[in-house]
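Thought: the user wants the 3D structure for the chain below. I'll pass the sequence to the structure tool as-is, report back what it returns, then summarize two notable features.
Action: structure_tool
Action Input:
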Amino acid sequence: MSATHEAAREHGAVKTSSNRAFGWTVGGILAVLGSARALFGSSGLDGVTMLMWLVAIPLLLAA
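Observation:
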C-alpha cells in the first residue's frame, strides 16, 4: 500500500518565498562583504574571502 502511495505522490521540498528571501539576503550580504574584502582589504583574496564566496554563490543560485 505504501509503495503505491510513494509512487503516486512525490514528497519533495517546496521552495517558499521565505526560503528565497533568505537565500537572496544572506547570499547577497556575503557576496558584498567578500567583494569589499577582496577589493579594499589588505590581504586580497585570502581564505575568509574565498569562504564567503563559496557560501554566497550557492545561496544566490538556489534562491
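Final Answer: Structure generated. Residues 36 and 49 are 9 Å apart (CA to CA). Helices lie at 2-8, 17-40, 47-62.
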